[in-house]
Amino acid sequence: MTRPRRRRILSAAAKRSLPFLIAAIVIVVVWQLVVTLTHPDPSVLPTPWATAIAFVGLVRNGQLGLDALYSVARVVSAWLLSAIVAIPLGLLMGSSLRLERIVNPFVELLRPISPLAWIPMAILWFGIGEGGKVFVVFVGTFFPILLSTVAGVKAVDPVLLNAGRVFGCTSRLALFRRVVVPASLPSVVVGLRVAFGTGWAAIIAAELVAAHTGLGYLIANGMDILRADLVLVGMAAIGLLGFLFDAFFRALQRQFGGSS
Amino acid sequence: MTVGAPRAGKPLRIDRLRKTYATRAGGEVEALGPITLDVAPSEFVVVVGPTGCGKSTLLQILAGFLEPTSGRVLADGTPITGPSIDRSMVFQSYALFPWLSVVENVEFGLRGQAHSRKECRELAMHQLRLVGLHSFADASIDELSGGMKQRVAIARAFAVDPSILLMDEPFGALDALTRRLLQRELLRIWEEQRRTVVFITHSVTEALFLGDRILVMSSRPGHIRAEWKVDVERPRDVTSDALRDLERQIYAILDEELGRSFEQGVGNRG
Known about the structure:
The structure holds two protein chains of two kinds. Chain A is mostly helical. Chain A has helices spanning 3-38, 48-60, 63-95, 97-110, 119-126, 130-154, 158-166, 172-209, 215-224, 228-256.
């Protein structure tokens, strides 16, 4: 990438992030207004300032960083596991009608069951160790990645397949490797992005119920000890991290560019 | 091998070719034929026809994407059984690979052949130079205009050193001025690297400008209604009396055929 191009991308990023900054300020202002007008008990709704102080406190003593690290590590590992299984399966399903016919009924029957509904079974099977949480996030991330990959393969322009066949892809495998896979990559990236979002939501829910670490636990614990500021700090961290990850994936999507 | 070594095209023989499609109602629709045609080595044949006459179907069969219902197609005496790099193709919608750079697109076909990476790059750059796009070698496809994309596609098609080149309305999506420019570029490259060309178009002017021979197809089921050898030196002036006269004759037949396909359409609906 050349230098002027990189600079252009950076200034475009600054332009894009301005509306988000404004939205964040509006949220804080409205929050402060509600506190000023209704004088709630701080254990129900603390001020933004008090929450910010709690935030800094939790950052300083390392608690927030540790909890965030636990949550992120769980999501990333389960999401990667999901990708390792779902992407190859999706590529094969997209290219073989027979395989799709066999696998699709399973997908359509299991997909409507929210990953949250799996939490009790996950606790029964895996206890409250890491396995259960990884399992729940795996369930939540698997289907978006799989479906996006299948859709990507099926949406490959037939003209590109013909071009591949003319220009030397004589076997199905060569065509798959040199045309089908790269052509469906943008759609795979979309699936990875969507899945990360659902996985992030699922891990918080799983940690609310069964964990001693993680941002979900921070929130649940805050509620138990009537510390609304801790709950809000946890919520802010969840929102912020989720947003940053999504921004990262959007940038990745622009890199792979093209069709989507 | 030497870069851009002159090599002749190969002959193409189409023998009583027919193509029918099964309809949903269980019947059969005649799409094409019967067509019998001999294309000489290094000949530039242009096929003109009304929309829906099956000229694209013909090219799909020549490329090996479709199988004929009956009849034979021989490339250099060998029956066509599938796509081959020796019959390379330029598509109307460019069909470039958007995940590859310009030069990588041109190299795509070379990779399967017995070349080292360095040779691939040299051959690709040579073809890009011929279409004037060597300074765009590392650009991404999305950055190119339609005319530039089709020049990359032409470079890709010539790079694999095919003996037959199939062109499916390659300039159909381009504006008139770009189209003229690319017609000239194509002729210049073709005169340097004489290959057998089958070129499909619906533009009579394009046919007059390019072809050694012009074939006019009938309305569906498409067969060859008329053909002319064009013995006019290139570069041609399509406004010359001789070519104007030929143009009139071609249009007379095309109008007739178009009228017939219109009647057919009305008949089918009634």
